Amino acid sequence: MTKEAILGAIRRGLKRGPLPADQRAMLEGRLASHPRHLIPARSRLPRPDQVALFIANVEKEFGTVERVPDLDAIPAALADYLAAQNLPTGFAMAPHPELLGIPWSSRPLLQPAARRAEASDQVSLQHGFAGIAETGSLMLPSAPERPTTLNLLADTAVVVLRASRIHGAYEEAWDRLRAEHRDQRTGGAMPRNIMFVTGPSRSADIEQTLELGAHGPRRLHILLVDDDPAALPPGEAEAPPPAAVPGGPAVPGD
Amino acid sequence: MHITSPAFKENAARALADPGLQKALGTAKGAFLQRRAAAVANLPEFERLRDIGRDIKNHTLANLDFYLEAFEAKVVAAGGKVHWCSTADDARAKVLEICRAAGARTVTKGKSMISEELGINQHLEAHGIRPVETDLGEYILQLRNEPPSHIIAPAFHLNREDWEADFRRMHTDLPADRVFAERRDILAEARSRLRERFLAADVGITGANFLIAETGSSVIVTNEGNGDLTQTLPRVHIALASIEKLVPTLEDATSLLRLLARSATGQDFSVYTTFSTGTRRPGDLDGPEEYHVVLVDNGRSNMIGTDFQDMLRCIRCAACMNHCPVYGAVGGHAYGWVYPGPMGSVLTPSLVGVEKTANLPNASTFCGRCESVCPVKIPLPKLMRHWREREFERHLTPTVARAGLGTWAFLARRPGLYRMATRLAVGALGLLGRGKGSFRSLPLAGSWTRGRDLPVPEPGGTFMARYARTQRGRR
């Protein structure tokens, strides 16, 4: 009843009844085609510059980035990072095939635990679905292999992201999601949750002065896997591309 | 929420005489403005995006009935529920019902202005359920039992000393002599205190910056991560949202998100921008098992088709209040209800009636800065003027002002008489003020000159007289 009352009041205000079929069809068409609006030019760049813009924007927002040649280089890079930050070697890790396939035994001190995050975790390792250069944001859709708590609970959040998955603008990342992800329940593209993360947690509630380390991670570190020869910085682009497709074939449906 | 808008003048006088508030307003002054200006300067397309933002919202409002039903269908498909609530009472009752059904004792909350509007906390408390605000600013206001004074920076009116004093007063289990050397120490104490609450909560309540018809998603935007912990950890997630939060597609939301953070805090994007769509999927290791959207009208549908429909475009960025000289002088509490500043001066009369709020649209110099920064181009001064007209029509204007306006209108309709009257006034004032630059006070206009000086008219008569002379000179 309430629903009808609200819809009725809206229609009275608009001075019309329910929309006629042809107009409904037009609006349904707009929903289905989800037209893009103006996309800022700032991210329309050659691939190496697009990746450089992503990194610059992450750093502007107080995140850190380390480029590694392939997934096999992750254990060493992570171990060195944790040691440098004086952090423990145990961490909660997204149970994603790409992360599970990393040769963790190359650094036996590291203790990955493939699971969701718990409040006691100091370090988490998440799998990045995409990066958005425009603002230096990570796109992290939820999935059994990418639990949301890994984005939130640990003091230090580390994310593995392949350079080939860095897009210029949000619209490109939406289209990648629509192309690659089919939700089992709805048949649509949206999983239960998508977080766009731009730097570590912060608050400006005390005297409008920015302080890092509110409720989410105090540190955000991105391990950027250079799997895209076209995206390497000039000078390195001519070097032989890292082992074919790093980490094996792309995971279907990601 | 209790409304003190009828006492705006007294509230404002008290605010101007409050040294703590004036210190806080002084500290904050310019911070948001400079950051916004820098963010806008870094995005050459910003002005065009404002037009796009306006058009997206107008399109949605013109078809709101369609998009609301489309949204509901998608929420249901994703395993969630939509609860349609006409009034604040309906919404409070629905939230309580969901919390009770969940057996909730503790409820965590993300920052939500609609929750303030509805008085959700008071209602839950009255029924034995403990609401815990988790946004840092909202958290201290809950400790102080105060409403927010700003829509994105709720503790805008507080100084660092207030934070320290309140934390010492309320967190009595911690050593009384602990040192808050940095703001960060205050933040760390709140973080550890709230961690326990996040983990213990049975229900999490958030607001929504946008609802998306294409996908049935609710979107929240935060910097702290508290909203995400609120909607991820408890078994039940309630998203409270008013009907005008709707946008059609992800692309529409994206365009508005490009405007929102830049207009609000001057960030390119907030730290956490999160799209929630339904309940935990099979195999998911976390996320809520129930997802409820409490969809609130509470007066919005009555604004559609009126002069005030444009106000429903508002995305709650707070740029208008950040740029308002009146807000900057008196802060948010003086406005007397949930929404302060220019957007509040338009919205509050629409939602609670102009009878109690006639002062608010008058609390403006009509300088126009609010409209010039509004990301969806709401003509705020024009809408405030509409309220002033309504106020006059309903005889809410004070007698003296009414008599003055009546006299002015009588003269304005008679140009010959008007020119004669102004000629006399200019001549008299010129004589009276000879040798002075301005009048500090004037007979019969004491309350006007108490707050401002009136410049002495320059020699040469009225504008019309001078204009006539220059025209003659040209010929």
UniProtKB/TrEMBL annotation, chain A:
<dbReference type="InterPro" id="IPR037171">
    <property type="entry name" value="NagB/RpiA_transferase-like"/>
</dbReference>
<protein>
    <submittedName>
        <fullName>Lactate utilization protein</fullName>
    </submittedName>
</protein>
<dbReference type="InterPro" id="IPR003741">
    <property type="entry name" value="LUD_dom"/>
</dbReference>
<feature type="region of interest" description="Disordered">
    <location>
        <begin position="228"/>
        <end position="254"/>
    </location>
</feature>
<feature type="compositionally biased region" description="Low complexity">
    <location>
        <begin position="245"/>
        <end position="254"/>
    </location>
</feature>
<dbReference type="InterPro" id="IPR024185">
    <property type="entry name" value="FTHF_cligase-like_sf"/>
</dbReference>
<feature type="domain" description="LUD">
    <location>
        <begin position="122"/>
        <end position="225"/>
    </location>
</feature>
<dbReference type="Pfam" id="PF02589">
    <property type="entry name" value="LUD_dom"/>
</dbReference>
From TrEMBL, chain B:
<dbReference type="InterPro" id="IPR037171">
    <property type="entry name" value="NagB/RpiA_transferase-like"/>
</dbReference>
<dbReference type="InterPro" id="IPR024185">
    <property type="entry name" value="FTHF_cligase-like_sf"/>
</dbReference>
<dbReference type="InterPro" id="IPR003741">
    <property type="entry name" value="LUD_dom"/>
</dbReference>
<keyword id="KW-0479">Metal-binding</keyword>
<dbReference type="GO" id="GO:0046872">
    <property type="term" value="F:metal ion binding"/>
</dbReference>
<keyword id="KW-0249">Electron transport</keyword>
<keyword id="KW-0004">4Fe-4S</keyword>
<keyword id="KW-0813">Transport</keyword>
<dbReference type="InterPro" id="IPR017900">
    <property type="entry name" value="4Fe4S_Fe_S_CS"/>
</dbReference>
<protein>
    <submittedName>
        <fullName>Iron-sulfur cluster-binding protein</fullName>
    </submittedName>
</protein>
<keyword id="KW-0411">Iron-sulfur</keyword>
<keyword id="KW-0408">Iron</keyword>
<dbReference type="InterPro" id="IPR009051">
    <property type="entry name" value="Helical_ferredxn"/>
</dbReference>
<dbReference type="Pfam" id="PF02589">
    <property type="entry name" value="LUD_dom"/>
</dbReference>
<feature type="domain" description="4Fe-4S ferredoxin-type">
    <location>
        <begin position="305"/>
        <end position="335"/>
    </location>
</feature>
<dbReference type="Pfam" id="PF13183">
    <property type="entry name" value="Fer4_8"/>
</dbReference>
<keyword id="KW-0677">Repeat</keyword>
<dbReference type="GO" id="GO:0006089">
    <property type="term" value="P:lactate metabolic process"/>
</dbReference>
<dbReference type="InterPro" id="IPR004452">
    <property type="entry name" value="LutB/LldF"/>
</dbReference>
<dbReference type="InterPro" id="IPR017896">
    <property type="entry name" value="4Fe4S_Fe-S-bd"/>
</dbReference>
<dbReference type="GO" id="GO:0051539">
    <property type="term" value="F:4 iron, 4 sulfur cluster binding"/>
</dbReference>
